[in-house]
Fold this sequence. Notes:
By secondary structure, the chain is α/β, with parallel strands linked by helices. Helices cover 44% and strands 11% of the residues. It has a single domain, classed as Alpha-Beta Barrel (TIM Barrel). It has helices at residues 10-32, 86-103, 113-118, 126-131, 152-162, 173-178, 189-199, 215-223, 239-246, 249-256, 265-275, 290-299, 311-316, 318-338, 344-347; strands spanning 66-68, 71-73, 77-79, 106-108, 137-142, 166-171, 204-208, 228-230, 281-284, 303-306. The strands form two sheets. Strands 3-4-5-6-7-8-9-10 form an eight-stranded parallel β-barrel, surrounded by five helices. It catalyses: isopentenyl diphosphate = dimethylallyl diphosphate.
Amino acid sequence: MPVPPLVPPPDVASSAADGAQRRKSDHIEVVRAGHAASACDPGFDAVRLVHCALPELALDEVDLSTRLLGKPLAAPLLISAMTGGPARAERINIHLAEAAQELGIAFAIGSQRIALERGGAAGLGAELRRRAPDVLLFANLGAAQFVRGYGPEEARRAVEMVGADALVIHLNPLQEAIQPEGDRDWRGVLDALGVLAAALAVPVVVKEVGFGLSPAVARALVARGIAALDVAGAGGTNWALAEGARGEGRTRAVAAAFADWGVPTAIAIRLVRAACPTVPVIASGGVRHGVDVAKAIRLGADLAGQAAAVLPAAMESTAAVVEHFTILRDQLKVACFATGARDLEALRRVPLLDEA
């Protein structure tokens, strides 16, 4: 089967890009309205950290600093990918970039497909790196595009567009299957990602979008050179429901059956960490607060990410985003203190209630 050209005729490209922009803007409204919340429990409430009534340390001694992919971070936190139409994307991403810089945490931008195919930044340009010169910054493209004309050159352009330190490739087959205009042929994606990882000068990170990575998929990705994995488990935003909310009739009916689909985040962390013991793991999907972050780290994650939870703050201001993640960070710090963990390595050794 011939591969569709990367850049279709101008009228087709413009129409497709306009449709994609409308879709991205619809996603923001659907998430804000609460129509895409997973019916699956992310699993963090079932995890109990043993409380330490004699921590033998001062709260101010707790050190949350870490490193990922060679970059220092003040705390193990990631602002996960989100986007909207170009006008929204620019405002949202500036707020997120400035907050990430102020707090010293990682930042992943939303999909750059529209920006690449339209030849403009669409809110995802060099301005982000200017506002966040020191952060661990992730570019972002969809996996399905790499069997539909994309290759290492498009990936390089996405990375260079924002001066990224790494490239996130998102896996969203269920979302695409529900989406009327979705990419439904995923044959050859795994090998294409292996080619990409070998060719790109920066690390390639692969993430699900809210249904979890299985051990088998995680091992296959690592075997092909993927540098880090974001389990993005079930329990947060459900992109099948998001597409159902955008659709009508049959689309909504099909999506409804997947309301609680996926591997819960807490379980996905454990499974992927066991399958890939030496690879950095990011936990996202239903992370509500700093105690969930502490549990994610204890289960085997290196970083924890939030997207939908910070969206209202991202639409408001940089200060609102800073306040949101400062609270998350402080909650994590207190959780470390209350378990007697001086740093993240100690937190990883804190006993769990069912193991004590």
